[in-house]
Amino acid sequence: MADRGASALSLPDDWPAHPEPILALNRMGSFDWDLDSGLFHMDAQAHEVFDLRPEEYDGRPESLASRVPRAESSRLDALIAQAMKDGSENYGTYFRLRRRDGTLRWTHTQGYIRRDETGRPRRIIGILRDATEEIAEIEARREQAAQNEVRRRQTNVVQVATAALAHARTVDDVIHVLKDTHGITRLGATSLVMGLVEAGRIRLVSDGPDNSFVPGTRITRIDEPYPMSEAVRTLSPRFIESPEEFAERYPVLWPNITHLQVTSAAYLPLIAQARPIGAMGLLYSDRRGFSPEDRNVIVALGSSIAQSLQRAMLYEQEMDLAEGLQQAMLPRTIPSVPGSDVAVRYRAATIGGSLGRDIGGDWYDLIPLPGGRVGAVIGDVQGHDTHAAAVMGQLRIVLRAYAAEGHTPATVMARASVFLHELDTDRFATCLYAEADMATGVVQVVRAGHIDPLVRHGDGTCRRIPVEGGLPLGLSAEFGRLDYPVGTIELDPGNTLLLCTDGLVEQPGADLDDGMQALAAHVATGPEDVRELADRLIHEAEKRGGDDDVALLLLRRRGLDTPQSGGRLQQHVAPGDPEALTEARRMIRAAVRAWGAADHADEIELVADELITNALMHTEGSAVVTLRVLTGTDRRLRVEVEDSSSALPRRREAGPSGVSGRGLLLVETLGDVWGVEARGGGKCVWSEFVVPHREP
Fold this sequence. Notes:
By secondary structure, the chain is an alpha+beta fold. Helices cover 33% and strands 28% of the residues. Strand 13 and strand 14 form a beta hairpin.
């Protein structure tokens, strides 16, 4: 603790010859060290600082060795020698003295070096003072500053985590924030586990690093002997300060996590609105114990996490309801159109770049019409909320009803606009309605503020088809303009009509016309199959992101040599109705034999039975089984099973003793080809068999 230089003593020439009274008033002693004789004179106050009686000191510096510890003496000698060597005029430092009773106390000294005309040191005069209280104050200030810095860092962790959690909209978002390097790991935790309370149980939603999952803990009861269960049960945190304490308190869990080298842990109940909604565990591998400040910060952070988690859970519940509402409003199934291939897709908007989805008012529909015609609808209700979805559902039903009644396209659109205007809502909608006769290829198009359709030709070229339009639905009645011009498009065999909402076209900072040109170019280079093309377009929309949802409808007129339907039977199979399943099997066997494919009856019935069973087991609704004959260059029998789930079938490894998991392998082995198609809010799994070419 040297303070040579500015803080050291610099004595003026008129310094009092006897300064002892002045120094004594300031509880300081003085000394005068004659370097030529080696005598070290101290006044009475200096004797008191050294805790020496006058008769115990002979004036020689060596006699102070009993009061100055060897290490301190060596440091002082080196400091003074260096000051004399480098020409310094003064020096100063703190050092420790050993008092008469053996205790140590801090002392401060300042010395002024007198030199002769040659610069040689001849004399050192200076002062001594007891610095015990001063050092204690300095240490206290340092300790307080260190504590303040720790609190500042800990508060910063809470603030950073809380700020990041404010943007978390889903449970996965919350977990991602906590696992991020700028999140809770700043507290030194090496692992995070989290569970949600559901129906008296705790469901694990984050189980820490790889190889850390403990079998049997994915779902646990609140009364089980686990730390998260105990935190939820008691509504109080559990701090585990050593491996020994962990092993003693939780002997069931500890043997399964010893490989994580946990040295301490903190488990917190996540409480929101006075009830536990989950629990969180922080595992440490480089610390033992928790200070009161650590505990306070962790508990405060737990409170912030609980609030964010509750918001995320409520948001996900609302989104589940909203998505269910939207799926209910969209068509459950899309009818097959003779002479045509159809593909429909819907993509929800992305929320602020996160993984969540927002609800919107985009929709599509395909309406069977008298005389083999079909009505294709694409539309977009203003807004992204449940109200937009509800308005969309009502508008879709009304449009379908007006079209099914046989009204002309212009009348259908005008009546729909009046309906929306009278619906007592502030929303408007854009819409395009196309009525197509696929036998002739003539398509009548009416546009209400919507973007134009596109047509892809058989040679692969794609172009935008300008269609004169009217005002958006809901506004035309308000402004007294119910006229909707009708445009005509001719689809040659092999041509595809593309209808979409602006979410597929618009890009940030780009003009709508540029977006339409880019879409046309993308369609031109896409696959010919409408299902593959629809998947590619939606995939591109996924990569681009965006804050608008997308609805897409593709209608392709088949070529003259494309296989056409030759026969068709359909059966509805409800869950829990064995009679319906038996009837479906009977229908399949009878139809296969009647159509001259008895040699394939067993395989076809077995594949159909597997597809129906999977639909009933893995979805919550019924199944619709369709059997049809396709004729062309070869004759094929096609089995289709539709359900209301959008989840795709997955191949699973059954294992040597498994009784399930071989379904898709069976379908693939027995059928010549199989696949999956989106059908409105659900899907269709199909399989085809090549059968002898003869008429049924």
